[in-house]
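Dock 6-O-phosphono-beta-D-fructofuranose; give full complex structure.
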Amino acid sequence: MTSPSALDHFPVSGNLTALQKELSNTHLRDLFANDPSRFDRYTLEAAGLFLDYSKHLINDEVMASLIKLAEEAGLPEKRTAMFSGEKINYTEKRAVLHTALRNFGDAPIMVDGEDIMPMIRDTRARMKAMTEQVHSGDWLGHTGKPVKHIVNIGIGGSYLGLKTAINAMTPYHVAGFEHHFVANIDPNELSEVLRKVDPETTLFIVASKSFSTLETLQNAQAARAWMIEKGCAEQDIRKHFVAISTNLNAIDQFGIAQENTLPLWDWVGGRYSLWSSIGLLTSMVVGYDNFERMLKGAEAMDQHFCNAPLAENMPVITAMLGVWYQNFMGAESQAFISYDYFLRDLPGHLQQVDMESNGKRTREDGSTVNYQTGAVIWGGTGTNDQHAYHQLLHQGTRLIPVDFIAPATTHNPIGEQHPWLFTNALAQSQAMMQGKTLEEVREELSATGMSADEIERLAPHKVIPGNRPNSMIVPEKITPETTGALIAMYEHKVFVQGVIWQLNSFDQWGVELGKVLGDRLIEKIRSKDETTDQDSSTNGLIKRFKQFNS
Ligand code: F6P
């Protein structure tokens, strides 16, 4: 493992190392006590999101140096390169233009000499038409009944982003339809969905950028076989299947009608594809207009990212705070905790966006980095998680920066429940920052009438160190616009960090080896012969599997 060394190839890195030493004896409590303007100085608003980053282990010098670091890494130039369609995904020789999918301007965006905006507009129009056909009841199944169930078959980026967006926009769901996801190759998942749907009224969306992903193809084949088994004739299968991919030949071979096919392009990364035709389920669940509102929320964040000065730029600030902790303070992970039930899938989506993008070690010239890169991303939903892992956040030995995402209002006011929910986020954020000193614990215990001996025995266990950095992100409400802005903000955060770490954030070679080995080992599992040519663990586990499957 590399040590969490500073990024010393950047001139400003020495400053940051010195600042880290200086700040190591400072407590966030004191920073707040000594500076009443801290909240005003370290907050900002963009695209409907409000960020409070005042509870971070920073001062003006740290922030100025972090911004300098972003400049030294060439962030403004790299940002321009991405938005203008340069092939910044250099290992796959591809442009990175998920931002074009949420662009509603008139200017052309060129890839290989072609303006891609007309085909984006055309695909949006087709998504709208398909959505309206389902909603109006004009899309009929093989027995002439309208669609009621929509099943998305897709995994990774063809699943996580959609699920996050669809659940975030729950209050906007169009009544009368049920949607389902099948992602895993685990047959339990498909079986559970098929148990709930009706073959006469079900539309399957096969969403796969490559149309070669094992899980998706197996599930799609099984769904197709299920339809036939339930009485749908071969020639009517087209009424129940839509496909989205860059691989139109593979769709054709699968037998999905051309009119039920939506295109995708190689300049859309899988984990950034929720804005594309892969978002068809989203459009069908919330209605095309709300899907477009989400795109426009993301576009507003893109404009902020491109136009706001780096020091007032939300994705840049969140990214550079991450760099501060991972590279200068020795943090290893970062938690995202949503205080909104509808945002419960956000941490899972961010896990893919972040870890598949920046879980890397090789620079463009082939050299290996000598500093930490992508953090371990994890998280969940408040308040549930307060009763699970927050203990470690407050009293554990690790430094884990947290983003609390807590909308100021709810779609479902019931009594004081939402004020309590928000207060809990606030209290966790405050507790992480201020902690509880030994003196405070002693005073508190003494007030209960406890003996001095007992106080000394118990007090150390109740001390909470505090000084744990965290952000609060407070949209007014979770709407299609703020959903789009929030996801786009984190996408750009990941991009900025990739620039600092000199990574290609847009390929994913690391996931290939497992796939290749899986293809080899399935032959061993299928074979009647005992496997003896693998390592002893693999041989033994194959034997155990066969013991119960012969
Ligand atoms: O896990 C690797 C990966 O390629 C992801 O990047 C992608 O989102 C996922 O598989 C699914 O890929 P596809 O949309 O091509 O089926």
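Observed: The CA atoms of residues 344 and 520 lie 37 Å apart.
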